[in-house]
């Protein structure tokens, strides 16, 4: 069901519902009564069987080839259907996804062929679910749940063309140029991991106070005064900026500035952060750009939720993370650089979360110059997955204390 020449689907989100359309070279198909037909130039496909529990909310979208599913806003989770033939590939790409026990199917209007789909729930979805490796049968988005989502105007009856919608999108807050100090006074910290390093709670986002002593390196490799969201795809308050402010309070001398290098990506497993993985290589490259201007003082790591759903991932987590840190130090030519690992939230309920939590807690025993920031007592933002903004700020203080102890050699 591959729309090889289709323009990527454009989405407008409202809480728990979705309006989607796909635009081909000469036709536009829109959602009508829960039925969403799509063409692959040799056939037309439409929903055939839908569970009663999903009736009334099903507004699907197809994904194929090197394209993907766009997820606007920051929903807590999405429910989607995956072609049965691609189920294992999807689970490998998104190990945090879980089966709901429901199934749907799509049917060819040309020869009555029926393709089975498995309904999956994916927490903390990335902004774009790339079909790589290719999901031959495509993906069908069924439901958007909770979190921060885009609310279309009530009077808008039909989705607008993608270019028009983009033109009308509210502009991002203006960035202020950051004055980079002399290299010896510029302390660089690398922020890596998944969504709890990014930050998902938007409470206080509009009222954040900027400090010109803290900068961040954006995706285009420019330095700006740090303000959330800093990470690509970010939406809320993470630990990076409060960590920097707390660290400045603990740093002697008035000329020091801090540069943050935000590289975390929500919903990502450790395998993408291991040497050779796309996120590992990108983080190393961005760190090297930052080090042209300053001195690497430490690394903050928070990840593990995505490796808590399969026993093989959880059981090998400690060994793989140790190797990744060794590789990172080697590639950055910083064999003793302090690294602080943050514990998963006590509220995380993935089946093998405790195995991963134990591995994280024991990291200082397996590798020198590694510190540990615990998450005891920290609360989530209401989704049992992401820390609240206040919890992120307290977590940042714990990161700063652990980093200070490492840097002092205590």
Which fold does the CATH topology of the largest domain refer to? Rossmann fold
H/E element sequence: EEEEEEEHEEEEHEHEEHEHEHHEHHEH
Biggest sheet character: 7 strands, mixed
Category from helices, strands and their pairing: alpha/beta
Q: Mind telling me the CATH superfamily name of the largest domain?
A: SGNH hydrolase
Classified by CATH, the class of the largest domain is: Alpha Beta
Q: On the 0-100 scale, what is the average pLDDT?
A: 78
Shape type: elongated
In terms of DSSP E residues, the strand content is 25-35%
What distance separates the N and C termini? 59 Å
The amount of helix comes to: 10-25%
Low-confidence stretches: 1-41, 57-67, 148-170
**What's the total count of β strands?**
18
> Total number of helical segments?
10
- Mind telling me the C-alpha Rg? 22 Å
- Could you say how many structural domains there are in total? 2
CATH architecture of the largest domain: 3-Layer(aba) Sandwich
Strand line-up in the sheet with most strands: 14-13-15-12-16-17-18
Concise overview:
With 410 residues, the chain is of the alpha/beta class. The protein has 10 helices and 18 strands.
Description:
The protein is α/β, with parallel strands linked by helices and 410 residues long. It folds into 2 domains: 7-167, no CATH class; 183-408, SGNH hydrolase (Rossmann fold, 3-Layer(aba) Sandwich), CATH 3.40.50. The chain has helices at 87-93, 162-168, 195-198, 240-249, 278-290, 311-315, 317-331, 353-361, 363-366, 389-408; strands at 7-14, 17-23, 28-30, 38-39, 44-49, 68-70, 77-83, 98-108, 114-123, 128-130, 139-145, 186-193, 214-217, 223-225, 257-262, 295-302, 339-342, 370-373. The strands form 4 sheets. Strands 14-13-15-12-16-17-18 form a 7-stranded mixed beta sheet, with helices on both faces. A 6-stranded antiparallel beta sheet has the order 4-5-8-9-7-11, with helices on one face. Strands 1-2-3 form a 3-stranded antiparallel beta sheet, with no helix packed on it. A hairpin with a 4-residue loop joins strand 2 (17-23) and strand 3 (28-30). The longest helix is centred in the last third of the chain and has 20 residues, at 389-408. The chain starts with 6 loop residues before the first strand and ends with a helix. Residues 1-41, 57-67 and 148-170 have low confidence and may be disordered.
């Amino acid at each position: 069901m591959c729309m090889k020449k289709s323009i990527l689907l454009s989405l407008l989100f409202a809480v728990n519902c979705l309006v989607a359309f796909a635009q081909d070279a000469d036709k536009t198909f829109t959602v009508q009564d829960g039925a969403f037909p799509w063409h692959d130039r040799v056939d037309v496909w439409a929903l055939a069987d839908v569970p009663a529990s999903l009736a009334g909310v099903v507004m699907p979208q197809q994904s194929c080839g090197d394209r993907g599913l766009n997820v606007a806003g920051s929903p807590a989770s999405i429910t989607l259907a995956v072609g049965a033939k691609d189920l294992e590939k999807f689970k490998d790409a998104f190990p945090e996804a879980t089966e709901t026990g429901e199934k749907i199917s799509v049917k060819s209007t040309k020869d009555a062929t029926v393709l089975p789909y498995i309904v999956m729930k994916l927490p903390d979805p990335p902004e774009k679910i790339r079909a790589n490796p290719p999901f031959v049968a495509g993906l069908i988005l069924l439901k958007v749940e909770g979190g921060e989502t885009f609310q279309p105007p009530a009077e808008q009856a039909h989705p607008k063309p993608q270019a028009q919608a983009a033109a009308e999108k509210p502009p991002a807050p203006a960035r202020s140029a950051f004055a980079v100090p002399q290299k010896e006074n510029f302390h660089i910290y690398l922020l890596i991991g998944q969504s709890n390093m990014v930050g998902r709670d938007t409470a206080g986002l509009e009222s954040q106070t900027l400090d010109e002593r803290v900068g961040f390196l954006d995706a285009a490799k420019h330095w700006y005064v740090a303000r959330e969201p800093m990470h690509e795809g970010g939406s809320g308050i993470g630990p990076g900026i409060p960590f920097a402010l707390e660290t400045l309070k603990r740093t002697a001398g008035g000329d020091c500035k801090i540069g943050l290098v935000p590289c975390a990506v929500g919903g990502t497993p450790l395998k993408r952060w291991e040497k050779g993985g796309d996120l590992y290589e990108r983080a190393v490259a961005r760190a090297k750009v930052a080090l042209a201007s300053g001195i690497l003082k430490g690394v903050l790591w928070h990840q593990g939720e995505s490796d808590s759903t399969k026993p093989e991932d959880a059981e090998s987590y400690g060994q793989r993370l140790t190797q990744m840190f060794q590789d990172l130090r080697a590639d950055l030519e910083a064999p003793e650089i302090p690294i602080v690992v943050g514990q998963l939230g006590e509220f995380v309920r993935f089946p093998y979360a405790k195995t991963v939590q134990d591995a994280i807690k024991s990291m200082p025993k397996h590798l020198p110059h590694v510190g540990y920031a615990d998450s005891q007592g920290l609360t989530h933002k209401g989704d049992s997955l992401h820390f609240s903004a206040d919890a992120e700020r307290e977590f940042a203080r714990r990161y700063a204390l652990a980093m200070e102890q490492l840097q002092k050699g205590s």
